Amino acid sequence: MLTRHRDLRTGTTYWQSRPMPRVPSARLQRDVETDVLVVGAGISGALVAEALSERHRVVIIDRRGPVKGSTAASTALVEYEIDTPLTVLTREIGAADAARAWRRSHLALQALSARTRALGVPCDQMNRDTLYLAGNVLDATGLKEERDARRSIGLETDFLSRAALRDRFGIERAAALLSHGDFVLDPRRLTAGYLRAAVARGARLHAPVEVMGVKSHGGGVMAFTKDGPAISAHSLIFATGYEVPKLIPQDGHRIVSTYAIATRPQRRNLWPGEALVWEASDPYLYVRTTADGRVICGGEDEDFADEEKRDALIDAKAAALGRKLHRLFPALDVTPQYRWAGSFGTTETGLPLIGPVPHKPHCWAVLGFGGNGITYSRIAADIISAALSGRADSDADLYRFR
Question: What is this structure's pTM?
Answer without folding.
Answer: 0.94
